[in-house]
Amino acid sequence: MNWDQIEGSWKEQKGKLMTTWGKLTNDDIESIAGKRTTLLGLLQSRYGRGREEAEQEIDLWAAKIR
């Protein structure tokens, strides 16, 4: 699924996101609101990931969801 599709179906994707990254709070999920860069920043801060690692995780997650 490409990011435009994810952003367009954000309400449906929120649960999948929380399942994958459990350290993200409901407030985090709401603040992301389908914005990849916001998710990227939160993964870096909550999980201590580097930018490239966080981007790879997001890409893998996006490829798995439907």
Your description of this structure?
Helix 3 runs antiparallel to helix 4 and helix 4 packs across helix 5 (51-64). The protein has a single domain, classed as YjbJ (Protein Yjbj, Chain: A, Orthogonal Bundle), CATH 1.10.1470.10. Helix content is 76%, strand content 0%. The longest helix is centred in the C-terminal third of the chain and has 14 residues, at 51-64. It has 66 residues and is mainly alpha-helical.
Topology readout:
Blueprint: H1 3-8, H2 10-20, H3 26-32, H4 36-47, H5 51-64
Helix pairs in contact: 3-4, 4-5
Q: What descriptors fit this protein?
A:
66 residues; globular; Protein Yjbj, Chain: A; mainly alpha
H-E string: HHHHH
* Whole-angstrom Rg: 11 Å
List low-pLDDT spans.
none
Q: Which CATH class applies here? A: Mainly Alpha
Largest sheet: none
User: In which range does the helix fraction lie?
Assistant: over 70%
Overall mean pLDDT stands at: 93
- CATH topology, anyone? Protein Yjbj, Chain: A
The rounded distance between the terminal residues' Cα atoms is: 6 Å
Shape: globular
Helix- and strand-based class? mainly alpha
Oligomer: single chain
Compact summary:
The chain has 66 residues and is mainly alpha-helical. The chain has five helices and no strands.
